[in-house]
Each structure stands twice: as C-alpha cells, then as structure tokens.
Design a protein that fits this description.
- Keywords: DNA-binding, Transcription, Transcription regulation.
- Belongs to the LysR transcriptional regulatory family.
- By secondary structure, the protein is α/β, with parallel strands linked by helices.
- It is 43% helix and 23% strand.
- The longest helix is centred in the first third of the chain and has 25 residues.
- It is elongated, with a radius of gyration of 25 Å.
Amino acid sequence: MDRLKCMEVFVQVVRAGSLSAGAAACAMSAVTASRHVQALEARLGQPLLHRSGRRQVPTALGARYFAECAEVLARVENADAGVAGVSSMSSVTSASSAMQAARRPLGQLRVSAPTTVGAHLLMPLFAEYLRTHPDVALDLDLKDRAVDLEEEGIHAAFQAGGLPEPGLVAHTLRGVTRVACASPAYLARRGVPRQPADLAGHDCLGFRYDDAHGQWLRAEGPRAATGTSALQPLQHDVRLIADNPFAQLQAAVCGMGIALLPEYLLAPEVAAGRLVRVLEAEATVSEPMHLVHLAGRYVSAKLEDFVGYMVARLGPEACAA
C-alpha cells in the first residue's frame, strides 16, 4: 500500500478517536482503513493503536508516530500549495520557496525538563518561542528524573547535573546555581552555620532525584576556579526528604531546616525576608545544564530551530554577553 496514504489514514483515525470515524474522514470503509493502519504496523513491527472498546487510542509508539506523520503530511500540503502558486514565478524562485517551506518549523515538539527548571526558569522562554513560532506546539514533560528520549518519545530534553549519556547530542547551557538557605526563625533557634562542617549539627532538607535518595551535600576542599566548592553527600541529619523542589522550598520557609535550592527559586523568598542565604562562600553549587537530543537521527526543522533558539538565549556565550 502507498505509505503516505497509510499515514494519512492513521492520522485521521487518531484525530477522530475511532476507525469508523477516521475511515469516514478518508472516504473509505472501516475495513479498508484498518488495513492501511495494519500495513504501517507490519512495517514497524509494533502496534500503533489500542483496539479495545469503541474508541481506538494510540499506543506509546503510536502517539510518537502520529506526531511525526502529522508533520510529514503538513509538509506535503505545503509543498503542493507552493507548486500550485508559482505559475507566475521563475523555476529558481519557486524551488527556493519550496525549500524554505520544507524547512519551516512546523508541528509538535515533546520537550522534557526538571520540574522547577521547566516551570520557573524556562517557561518565559517557552512563551516567547511560541509567540514567534505560530506553527509549532510544545508538549512539556516536566519531571524530576532522568528520561529515556527514545522510549518516551522526547524530541529534546533539558538535563541538569553531570555529563549526558552516550548516544545524545548535547548543547551546553548556563549552569544552575544552588545556594544553602534557611528561614530566620530556624537560624535563630539552631544557630547560623559558619563552615560546611557545621551542617552536621543541623537539620538538612533532602531532595530525591532518581537514585540520590535525598542525600544532602556538604562542601569539601578549596573553592574551584569557577567559584564553586566540591560537594560530597552528607550522610546524616536529613530530617525531611521531598521529590518536589517547591515542597522543599516551603519546608525551608516553614523553618524545618536548611535546604540547597536553585538561586532563581529562592531569590524571591530572600528578597521578602522569608529565607536567608548561608555558607555562600563555601556551599554555592553550580550544576551544569545541557539541552540534548538523540544522535544519529534526522533532525527536523522544528527541532533544529528550537535547539538554536534556546542555545542562543541560554548558552554560556549568550549569558556572558
């Protein structure tokens, strides 16, 4: 069967929510529509639809494949429109226009980021990007754990922490600065730590991220040339562990202990007097951040444009300027 026609049928079925409705949109019988979808599934070797009940919903693979098929079909329509409208144009100009249309950012991007990074630091940039790219939609996947881009259908991911895994193209961005802080009431009650070793006598608020198990950090050794200390896990006195940075922030404001929080998150609380920075000279941590996508794959216009846009605004050179 014609692969493009199969993709068109599949997209219509997903949009309509059932084989019968999708078949009607394509002016064919439900049996014929089912054969078109089955042809795609046979080619991919995996099911694209859950076929239980009256409604057919895409599988995890089907959802990812739907987004790509929809973009392919939109580009075909753009190419057809470009050819139809060039009767008064030269062949060189029409070819150039067709190439520009083919590289115009179009379709949905699935983007992953840590919760606070995405919701607080990146959201203004996402809003700006969507205002200037009306043909692109963002599907944000905000979670505080590592993601498998291929398995979860993620086009691009913002990752804070160490080096990205092999198989990913990584673009270096501005680091995330974390600062130790506590409420004035807690410090009045328990005292102000003057050096990293003093943390052993304090209640530290842990943040669970994947296998970190809520461990806090303490500075060891001299400050690095970058202005940050080498931090090691603190093995005791973690009184509260949370898997959400906003919960950790509120715990610190409530006087439950000392937290290590992103500068952009705690700055408003410090300005309002609800939190106080401590150990700034010794326990300021700058975690690297990268924007990654899968290597060895075709990079669509929407992904290429999105990555370039974010690197231009968050890359080290842009931030230094």
